[in-house]
């Protein structure tokens, strides 16, 4: 039996190659995602472990650094006290910031968009477990104000040399400073993943990042040899005053590493979702290929049965073939995955996540996952055809085609309709009002809908194909008629081929609808709720210096300047976020509807709470809530409830004083500017632009520009998603090629006959092309229809997140259908050529 | 009987393979088929009958020699012209698998016309349908027709475009004698009633007796010819030519 399997594999290598390709792509995606994520993980673990001492002394309630940071500090005097603790070799007070950006010689910020710009006071203590921390690679450490070191990678990128003057952006005041480079220093662990690292002398760091000389953000402690971290931690903890805590470096590293992993976890999930889509589509290709191969070989298999092979043996021989395909596909996929990881790394480097300093991580888990997934998917996909193969009775050896009995098609239809009903229920439920776990309900509903349509597609295909046949016959006459009938010859196969394309088209259409809705919603949001004339913001929401808003307030023609400060926060028992606003002017800029309380009452330790959260947390006017931005919690009083609105995505608002009281830094996240009635907009804008000119990370945008910027962000994301979905479409196109090629082979005799009675080569090619087009159109039409429905459900379910408007770009969706038809023409290229080249007589003589 | 030549082969040679294994399926065949005549080609298996038909019907190219269809010399035509010729001027009936399984009987019959983008002459179509007695079966697919009916559909297809000449390669080879007689009767009638030219390969002396003229082929060469054959005269001639394989 094995020898027979091997023979048939060799004989069908071209056809198998195509289905192997589907597995290759799917596995490559999985492997690539895992390799990339593991590399990411190692890079961050490396950074994080290099940035903590054996023990860290921090303000109570401190969380590993947030972008905004906190004003909470430990007193300077504590350093001396800690040094006296037995077992402490040395200790140093630290002042750090993640938002100091190095400008290149032309004034452009270095490091990618969104990568942090680390800054700290220079010190020589090693990191936990004796790992080298700051390492000087050239020059000398900064010793006084006006001197800095930068990391060698950044220096290399901007061609800075020791002795050069460098401009730096800070989120403090002044926003832009200059300093002389006296050396290059990096973390001992190497790569900074696209971030930059600047060190200052300790006093300057303290002045810049703490703002006074009374405190430090933390104390970095190094243990004497032989003293364990945990032991030292307890000894230190014993001498600390109230409001200060000690943690081992490992604990802190784990905490911040965990946060980074969580933040980056979405990348893995995102990539794995696309891997799953590719594998699903690839699975279809395999089911189809094996079904056809089995059908073609029905005679051979029936012969095997007649010669005494048991059913199980026939099943196993087909499965064995599939496993070889799976094995080969997984191996190649694994290799390709490695290349893909390099590609993903390059892609992310463009977004500021530079992993070039970390070698790619190839874990055994990746290899196992690649082979496991590749083999399992292939085996599952081949199982049904294999079982059908074994049920071929020896007499079937004389039949041409083994059609699935109609009953099974209808059983699928019924199953599909039930599933579709369930899916619709789930989607409606998720889109009418947010339910618990509504994301899961939505996802399950979408997947169910997709499978339901796949199940009912053989039945739906018939009327759709017939409908396509009308213009076909009309335009192409006999050739159109033949193409129509060929596509209807085996609706289940046509539908399965189209389903693969449908999956990709559904997702693309869904994202198109959702993306268009998001853009329209942004426009509507800005038009309806935002009455400010200008928005001042920085890329990716990094806080910036308050001095910018101070200057803007003085510009003639400016009526109001309203700041918004924002930080993740611990509020009661929730990890949430807090925004500090200016109550007097905020209402002039953003529409806010108070259910209870009044805006002017917002001052000091008071909170406005969104109505939904208030209901959930049972908060009312007068409730007391502990709030902390990373220091000791302060108690706030709820003084008002505001209505949930997509214009205000924050659920807790306080005044700027309240924000400061909770430990928020005096750095702005957004500044809104309203100009005076009679002012010259051009003049005002020019002045505003002049103010932000020295700080290239910060931009001033008017309403249109602000909307355009939001559009651009949505478009960028959509482009990435389309590119990834493109792979699924490519696999589906390969499926069409494969199906057509196989069906051309199956119909060799008939093609010979058609040629004999006078069908020209051109007409024959056209016939195959038309077949491909009708299959693509079927996939596209089903996909776009389902995609619009799912896009609608997605939009409805996300309307609380600000996607309030449904926009269906029909022209674009129509274009997809046209493109699908073109794709069909492309897919038909080789099979059509092959058909046209068949020798008439030999074709007729084919058994 | 008119003696206008509908098709002619001159010094036709068809060789397969090369060297020692070379086979001359046709070895200097010169033969004429007359318009309005029903001609049978007979000969033992492997004697080159099908090869001759395929060359004559523009389905295959001879190694040497000329083929003239009316005034057209096939050797000068490219694939597109040959295709058009097959479509418009030649009818062909194979031993089996003559029909496109996805099309109805009517669509199969009209296939050469619709491929050419021509519409049928309705009167002629009716005549053909009535002659082959297929009217109630027109909407059926091949799989719903008997073997004899399928061959009649194939014959109707060969005739409906009013070709210059129809070639039939053992059209009754797969049929029982009753169905075979139906098909042969139909071919005979189309010669008698419409003046169609038909060339048919057969093994069967009874089938040959429906024709006007029998040409005997052995080892790729024309050996003999018989006019106004009967089953008995054909059989005795066959036995004379190849005593061992008289019925093969
Ligand atoms: N494609 C081919 N390749 C090689 N030899 C062939 C081919 N077709 C036919 N022949 C040989 O040519 C001879 C005549 O074949 P054919 O015309 O089919 O005979 P018939 O139809 O009289 O039985 C035979 O010897 C056959 O083996
Ligand atoms: Mg023959």
UniProtKB/TrEMBL annotation, chain A:
Cellular component terms per the entry's GO annotation: plasma membrane
InterPro entries membership: ABC3_permease_C, MacB_PCD, Macrolide_Exporter_MacB
Main location: membrane
Keyword set includes Acetylation: no
Stretches assigned to the ABC3 transporter permease C-terminal domain: 273-394, 724-839
Membrane topology: Multi-pass membrane protein
Localization per record: Cell membrane
Listed transmembrane segments: 270-295, 318-348, 368-386, 413-432, 438-461, 495-516, 720-745, 770-793, 813-832
Keywords: Cell membrane, Membrane, Transmembrane, Transmembrane helix
Residue ranges of every copy of the MacB-like periplasmic core domain listed in the record: 17-238, 494-691
Recorded GO MF terms: transmembrane transporter activity
Family per record: Belongs to the ABC-4 integral membrane protein family.
Name of the protein: FtsX-like permease family protein
Native source species: Metallococcus carri
TrEMBL record, chain B:
PROSITE patterns: ABC_TRANSPORTER_2
Keywords: ATP-binding, Nucleotide-binding, Transport
GO cellular component labels: membrane protein complex; plasma membrane
One Pfam family it belongs to: ABC_tran
ABC transporter domain ranges (all copies): 7-244
Top-rank taxon, per record: Bacteria
GO molecular function, one term: ATP hydrolysis activity
Protein name: ABC transporter ATP-binding protein
